[in-house]
Amino acid sequence: MAQHGKRTVAARAAFDGKANLSVEDAVALIKSAASAKFDETIEIAMNLGVDPRHADQMVRGVVQLPNGTGKTVRVAVFARGAKADEAKAAGADIVGAEDLMETIQGGKIEFDRCIATPDMMPLVGRLGKILGPRNLMPNPKVGTVTMDVGQAVKAAKGGEVQFKAEKAGVVHAGVGKVSFDAAKLAENIRAFVGAVGRAKPTGAKGTYMKKVSLSSTMGPGVSVDIASATAE
């Protein structure tokens, strides 16, 4: 039988019997129980009443968290000429065209977000089998296929979070760090939940938001009262 450390046992004890907490109470509980030696990420998971296998039930979108994510996002941009210069000026970590494609085909993916100008998509399309499964494929629906690459780079580095429902209808993302002020975390959480709510697909039937849970990277999770999470 697996043996758990004292910190894990203590954290689980603190969470035992607690469920459907307000956003503020859930954040306070998670912050008090976080004991890792690094600044853990506060993670949200939303169970939705959708089946993403059907096109009219896919949930996908992007949200700008008001207080950022606390994470350093590495951005790659497919662009040429003036647009490449614009991307570099905005702070893109990697900018290229055929050379970037070859680097990715060689298995070197050193970025968290990929942006492309529309004219580069025939080139980027060849990387679908590599970037797609990693959720890195540029997509106009979330603003990563655009001529305004400068703004897209700044948004990615400034706290923009993409979300997409997985096969089981679950959406998850990081919404800040344990070190963040509790009020700022609550604001980020409600901004994310609100964005997922606005992304409700036409094919969704019955209850859309079934469950919302929060956890830290190394800690247990706790369910959050949906009314509290959706409060303006």
Any overview of this molecule?
The protein has 232 residues and is an alpha/beta fold. The chain has helices at residues 6-15, 23-33, 81-90, 98-105, 121-124, 128-131, 149-157, 182-198, 226-229; strands at 41-48, 60-64, 75-78, 94-96, 113-116, 160-164, 170-177, 209-216, 221-224. A 4-stranded antiparallel sheet has the order 7-1-8-9. α3 links the parallel β3 (75-78) and β4. α2 crosses α8 and α3 packs parallel to α7.
Q: What distance separates the N and C termini?
A: 45 Å
Q: H/E element string?
A: HHEEEHEHEHHHEEHEEH
- Tell me, what is the CATH class of the largest domain? Alpha Beta
Segments where pLDDT lies below 50 for 5+ residues? Answer: none
Helix content: 25-40%
The spatial strand order of the largest sheet comes to 7-1-8-9
Q: Would you give the CATH topology of the largest domain? A: Ribulose 1,5 Bisphosphate Carboxylase/Oxygenase
CATH A-level architecture of the largest domain? 2-Layer Sandwich
The structural domain count equals: 2
Which descriptors apply to this entry?
21% strand; alpha/beta; four-stranded antiparallel sheet; Ribulose 1,5 Bisphosphate Carboxylase/Oxygenase; three-stranded parallel sheet; 33% helix; Rossmann fold; 9 helices; 232 residues
